């Protein structure tokens, strides 16, 4: 059975409200929670961006069953990889082993706050070095590491869960798929790309979890939902090579100004049609994903969405 998740979207919600959403999502019956790890929102209209790791600590304390996951954390600029490992191990302890650390090469939007954004080839080198640091630390090793980009004279994690925190790596092509297969316990892909899943299987990932995320906008009025999606989610229509380089919310506003409500609504189901939301989820199942998180676009509609998911959506998704 596919694990059905709920997204704690830091870009559209404040920290206290995110904790309450997590509690309600567990009560509604979701299997896992994923949380975005940003410094900025994509668009200023989203209006928030609290520190995800503080929220994770509170959520770990306030919940008891639901699994937790960062989605995703970049360990190459804003955070040193040794510190990422410490944070992940601490959340692993606080959640009694419910946490998975999801890692990716990041984007300029969030990482430039501490310095210049490296060239893509340098980022890939830095990301692999970060994995070479984080993996052994989470496994309990006393690590000394000297690379081209990172130095760890000596590091050891004193507080770790009994079972090492699993790692998932975001992948979109052959290189990142190879990193996921070599260093991680799972793969993450932000669209239902069966080709990436096949590459992952061929690289040695067969039988391991595959995480995805599908955006929806549930509400009683489809037109209102389309307006909300256009206002807050139109950035998602941009190609990732563009999204990874843009430096701030104002850049995303400019890059997405030609995207119309009907354009983004082609990829995000909008309104009360249960079948449309189920069909969007089904694409990930058909592509071979094992764990798929729903992200409800629009902060005001979260309570209504959670009630609807409990009563109607989750029972349908369990049948797939």
TrEMBL record:
Class of enzymatic activity (EC top level): oxidoreductase
Q: Where is the Luciferase-like domain?
A: 13-290
Q: Which domain of life is it from?
A: Bacteria
Q: Which Pfam families match?
A: Bac_luciferase
Which keywords label this protein?
A: Oxidoreductase
SUPFAM superfamilies to which the protein is assigned, alphabetical: Bacterial luciferase-like (SSF51679)
EC number in record: 1.-.-.-
Q: Which InterPro entries match?
A: F420-G6PD/mer (IPR050564), F420_G6P_DH-rel (IPR019945), Luciferase-like_dom (IPR011251), Luciferase-like_sf (IPR036661)
Q: Name one GO molecular function term.
A: oxidoreductase activity
Could you tell me what this protein is called? TIGR03557 family F420-dependent LLM class oxidoreductase
* Native source species: Plantactinospora sonchi
